[in-house]
Amino acid sequence: MKLSPQQLRQVAEWFSEAGVFDVIAEQNVAPQSPKGISTLAELKTAVAKVNISLKECALHMVFGVGNENARILFLGEAPGAEEDKQGIPFVGQSGQLLDKMLNAVGLDRTTVYITNILPWRPPGNRTPTTEEMTLFRPYVLKHINLINPKMVVCLGGTASKTLLQTNESLSQLRGRSFRIGEISAEIFATFHPAYLLRSPSQKREAWIDFLRIKSLL
Ligand code: URA
Q1: Domains: count for the chain
Q2: DSSP string, 105-139
Q3: Is 83 in the pocket of ligand 1 (CB under 6 A)?
Q4: In this predicted model, what pLDDT tens digit does every residue of 107-124 receive, in sequence order?
Q5: Which atom of ligand 1 is nearest to the CA of 116?
Q6: 119 CB under 6 A from ligand 1?
Q7: Which of 59, 75, 203, 206 is most buried by a 10 A CB count?
Q8: Domain span holding position 111
Q9: Ligand 1 close to Cβ of residue 84 (< 6 A)
Q10: Which CATH number covers residue 189?
Q11: pTM to 2 decimals?
């Protein structure tokens, strides 16, 4: 059945009066601004309360792991299936590669901190939506400020673009360093380990990024 424009308007008005649009909008709204939060525990509680449909499909919230006094923080995109099962960032295949890359430059999970833009796995590992990334950005900034690292390394284009609020591609962002007003750390962008698993020929380039990052630490 095809509705005429007038009928569509009537349906929309009926939905609006019934509060349907308010309910949909509220579904993806962060209830508490993270601004006043001063500890990681408080932030974790606030993130857990974010009202978003993503978490209905997820098993666990994935917050962060590593050294809370780290000088370097790695920022991924979103948990995958294994991270969702264990509630820990980067424990699947990508995580194993990340661990190897860290070890290669003398780092490990006791010296770095690791988190993601999204704390819940998107269904079927789909790419996070712009709305989801925008919703969680203030929480990510607070997370970074509570750890207070000297450096943030964004893993992959999605994390880089969200943190830096840019449309530049990863290849344009790699090899440079950035500052944004909201955090004091210097920001770098490199490949996501999942991409390196698919394109092993790029591991050499990632190695160059990691050596540079280590030399600046
Ligand atoms: N990919 C990510 O971006 N983050 C994880 O935690 C795992 C895979």
Answers
A1: 1
A2: TT--TTT-EEEES-SSPPGGGPPPPHHHHHHHHHH
A3: yes
A4: 999 999 999 999 999 999
A5: 4
A6: no
A7: 75
A8: 5-216
A9: no
A10: 3.40.470.10
A11: 0.86
